[in-house]
Amino acid sequence: MRERLLAAARGEKAFKPGDPKIWTGSLDALMRALTPENRHLLAVIRRERPPSVSALAERTGREQGNLSRTLGKLARYGLVRLVPVGREKRPEVAVTLLKIELDLENDTYQIAS
């Protein structure tokens, strides 16, 4: 992590393909995004690989506008990718494992995938 920060400060590309993603936002916000419904949604995307958001809406019975907002939020956390395919977007699960390291003594955390 230190090397990444130093590389970024030098103006170099800090991340290489395959490097774990590190979240620096609020742990509470991430945990609110990982509701049982959203974890189920991630499982459906991973298992069924829907070709579009509209196909995912049909499979899950969710309203497409609501689903798009949810997917956007999950994409901001790096959990989902929305891949353009023509006029549609194909949802893909970007992360299958999260590691949360809590330092209770110093009230700090690090989240990596």
Description of the structure:
The protein is α+β, with helices and mostly antiparallel strands and about 110 residues long. It has five helices and five strands. The protein starts with a helix and ends with a strand. The longest helix is centred in the middle third of the chain and has 13 residues. The protein has one domain: Winged helix-like DNA-binding domain superfamily/Winged helix DNA-binding domain (Arc Repressor Mutant, subunit A), CATH 1.10.10. The strands form two sheets. A three-stranded antiparallel sheet has the order 1-5-4, with no helix packed on it. Helices cover about 45% and strands about 20% of the residues.
CATH architecture: Orthogonal Bundle
What about the largest sheet? Answer: 3 strands, antiparallel
- Percent helix, as a range, is 40-55%
Tally the structural domains. 1
Strands ordered across the widest β-sheet: 1-5-4
Beta fraction: 15-25%
CATH T-level topology: Arc Repressor Mutant, subunit A
Note the run of SSEs as H and E: HEHHHHEEEE
Mean pLDDT across all amino acids: 83
CATH superfamily assignment?
A: Winged helix-like DNA-binding domain superfamily/Winged helix DNA-binding domain
Short note summarizing the structure:
The chain is α+β, with helices and mostly antiparallel strands and 113 residues long. The protein is 43% helix and 21% strand.
